[in-house]
Design goal:
alpha+beta, single chain, 173 residues, 5-stranded mixed sheet
């Protein structure tokens, strides 16, 4: 019982010291996305993930106002198809409409999946927008923007034809 009592007394001190040691992030400080690379592999001779072309888009980090892609910082919303990147007009989730995604009516080849980054939280997608995306031949996955960027990285590195439309992570409804 005495050992348990000491542990209960020590625990709050330990938590406080860990909080002091961990770096706090400011509002616009870049946060790094987790690496998809393995530090060590028994199968290095056949590791396909490490043989990704240098010109392929990779989201490397994000802030509340933008993203870092291949070492370049972008502010605002982004639209990526395969290895093409462009700024995107919507600034908040309610501004995402079929018109804001109309490029998918003409772009070929049609991506198999549109990964929609909703900002800080996943938002329910309007049925009209779902119908529009389905009419183009794509599937839709709505995620928070951080996970949307990571999912895009994985699928793009696998060589799949995917697209992502991302609002900055700091956007919330």
């Amino acid at each position: 019982m005495a050992v348990r009592g000491r542990a209960v007394e020590t625990l709050p001190k330990l938590i406080r010291s860990l909080k002091k040691d961990s770096p706090s992030l400011t509002r616009n400080q870049a946060q790094v996305l987790p690496s998809l690379r393995r530090a060590f592999s028994l199968y290095d001779q056949i590791n396909l993930i490490d043989s990704v072309p240098e010109d392929q888009l990779r989201f490397q980090g994000y802030t509340d106002t933008g993203f870092t892609v291949n070492g370049v910082k972008y502010e605002g919303s982004l639209l990526c198809v395969g290895n093409l990147i462009t700024s995107w007009a919507p600034h908040k989730f309610s501004e995402i409409t079929p018109e804001s995604l109309s490029i998918f009516q003409i772009i070929r080849p049609i991506p198999e999946l549109l990964i929609l980054g909703c900002g800080r939280h996943i938002e329910p997608v309007d049925p009209e927008l779902r119908r529009f995306i389905r009419s183009t031949g794509m599937k839709l996955e709505a995620l928070d923007s951080r996970n949307a960027a990571s999912t895009y990285n994985i699928l793009n590195e696998e060589g799949r034809i995917v697209a992502t439309a991302l609002l900055p992570y700091g956007v919330s409804s």
